[in-house]
Amino acid sequence: MSAEDSQARKCQVCAKSEAALDGSSLLQCGRCKNTKYCSKACQSTDWPTHKTNCTAAASSIHNFTQGPPDRSPKKVLLLELEDYSWLGDMYTAFHTSMHQASDYQRIPSESSPAAVVDAITTAPNAIILFEPSIMSAKKRFRADRINRTLVAYVKAGGTLIFGCQTSNHVSPPDLDRYLKDIWDLPWTMGNYQRIPFERKLDSINGKELPRVCNAKAVQLNGVAPGDVVYCQPEEYGPGGAPVVWHEYGSGRIGWVGDVNNEEESGIITRAMCGI
Description:
Layout: H1 3-8, E1 27-28, E2 36-37, H2 40-65, E3 75-79, H3 92-101, E4 103-107, H4 113-120, E5 126-129, H5 140-155, E6 159-162, H6 172-183, E7 188-199, E8 203-204, E9 207-208, E10 212-221, E11 228-231, E12 243-248, E13 251-256, H7 263-273
Parallel strand pairs: 3-4, 3-5, 5-6, 6-13
Antiparallel strand pairs: 1-2, 7-10, 7-11, 8-9, 11-12, 12-13
Helix pairs in contact: 4-5
């Protein structure tokens, strides 16, 4: 490097040139690989201001080195850990739509807890809980490892949706206890009724939601207003939320309380999956 180049390279904080460092080189930010400092002290002083730009620069470099975005179908996992085949073809259209829109994998009811954990740790884009057996107090010991893995998965950025027949076959005590003990959430089971629920959130993951969700659904009480996707119209009095979208760690938890697999619920569930 020429003496002229050394003179031009300066500390971001005190403007001391590299030429004035008696043969030493300026320190370089390890993230953006661009900003220079004459000392650790100057780097520490600048970090509160620099970190916003630095993070953006590091992200740009990461995205560039990763090449073009991944165009492969999003992976969605369905957990049906107890046999619900007695429902017949009630969910045939739902499963078909999921297969068409994603890499859709159903974990069969005969799967061991270890096999379920292995499937979760493949880091799918979203997981749909089809039925509530992992919420049962009587079966909690069998599902303990599964639940711990689900919590870690969501905290790390995954999406878990309590949908399909989950709300229809869980008791209020089991649901309330599960949400509190496993997820530390204040939600409790609320009303169970069919009404035309009003939309409070226009879209999820960039996917527009139906303006009205006409469904027989289990609502949740204690949900923060910003997490309510649909709500009970005022003329029906106070109520809970039949559809919820909650930020949890770096991930998301969805609740779709419809028990009859209405068309609107399929649209909402797919939106939560990002498909």
